[in-house]
UniProtKB/TrEMBL annotation:
Domain of life, per lineage: Bacteria
Organism: Sphingomonas montanisoli
Name of this chain's protein: DUF533 domain-containing protein
Amino acid sequence: MIGKVIGALVGREIDRRDGEGGVKGAVLGAASVGLLRRLGPIGLLAGGAFLAKRAYDRRKESKAPITPA
């Protein structure tokens, strides 16, 4: 179950990067679930680490002071 959640989050990140939305993120998210399962616990840790890094970067960026141009 955790693998499916991580796959869904990976798919969402891919769709955010494209900006188009649609099937691409869903397909790549589903494929990532299969890949993460084959890698076992190391794959789940890698997928979770990827998502945690993205969330950390996004939070850090939102807290950065805005400087006038």
